[in-house]
């Protein structure tokens, strides 16, 4: 699936994140852990920011100047309603050029939707887009091998891809960055997240 198709799929299911049953603490603990490694609190970027604003709220409370980007027009519209003072970009992270260097970039449950052949270029872009000692937090499918699949658990069919745990680690080492934390945080599900620091 192309990123534009993912955006259209997410346009149809914004109510899942607006529901009272949505766990607004999802990902917060992991973000708080990542933020303990941050040395400077300047600009931050939430990739695949969605509509809840929970990570924007956290970053504001920690003294960052956050921005958000999402491929879903509806998600961006709702995000702007919650945070009219924040800059949001409606764009494809595979094509979008970062306008600044950031001290913190989050990509929680988002870049796993990009095409497999874009995983490496996008991660290189995000790590390159960090200031010295900046942090990248991202979640992925914690598979052993590189791969891709589709499912319709949320309603419309969506696509997922992963470089595999060793594939991600090899990329970070090649880029001269350091993996500060790796965790299967929903084990036995293969939901995994990395905290990576740029040197």
Main sheet strand line-up: 3-2-1-4-5-9-8
Proper CATH architecture of the domain at 1-12 and 26-92: 3-Layer(aba) Sandwich
Largest sheet: 7 strands, mixed
Distance between the amino and carboxyl termini: 34 Å
Q: How is the quaternary structure best described?
A: single chain
Strand proportion, as a percent range, falls in 25-35%
Secondary-structure element string? HHHEHEHEEHEEEHEE
Based on CA atoms alone, the radius of gyration comes out at 16 Å
Gross morphology is globular
Number of strands: 9
Number of helices: 7
So what's the CATH class of the domain at 1-12 and 26-92?
Alpha Beta
CATH topology of the domain at 1-12 and 26-92: Rossmann fold
Question: In a few lines, what is going on in this structure?
Answer:
With 199 residues, this protein is of the alpha/beta class. The chain is built from seven helices and nine strands, in the order H-H-H-E-H-E-H-E-E-H-E-E-E-H-E-E. Helices cover 31% and strands 28% of the residues.
Please supply descriptive tags for the structure shown above.
9 strands, 7 helices, alpha/beta, two-stranded antiparallel ribbon, 199 residues, Rossmann fold, seven-stranded mixed sheet, 31% helix
């Amino acid at each position: 699936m192309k990123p534009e198709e993912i955006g259209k799929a997410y346009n149809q299911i914004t109510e899942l994140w607006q529901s009272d049953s949505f766990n607004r603490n999802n990902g917060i603990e992991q973000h708080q852990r990542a933020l303990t490694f941050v040395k400077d609190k300047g600009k931050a970027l939430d990739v695949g920011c969605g509509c809840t604003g929970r990570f924007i709220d956290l970053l504001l409370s920690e003294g960052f100047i956050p921005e958000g980007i999402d491929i879903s027009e509806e998600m961006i519209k709702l995000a702007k309603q919650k945070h009219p003072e924040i800059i949001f970009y409606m764009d494809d992270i595979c094509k979008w050029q970062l306008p600044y260097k950031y001290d913190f970039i989050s990509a929680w449950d988002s870049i796993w939707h990009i095409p497999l052949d874009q995983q490496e270029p996008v991660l290189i872009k995000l790590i390159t887009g960090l200031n010295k000692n900046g942090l990248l937090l991202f979640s992925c499918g914690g598979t052993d091998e590189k791969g891709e699949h589709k499912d319709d658990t949320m309603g419309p069919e969506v696509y997922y891809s992963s470089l595999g745990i060793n594939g991600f680690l090899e990329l970070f080492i090649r880029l001269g960055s350091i993996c500060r934390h790796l965790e299967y945080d929903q084990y036995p599900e293969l939901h995994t997240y990395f905290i990576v620091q740029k040197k």
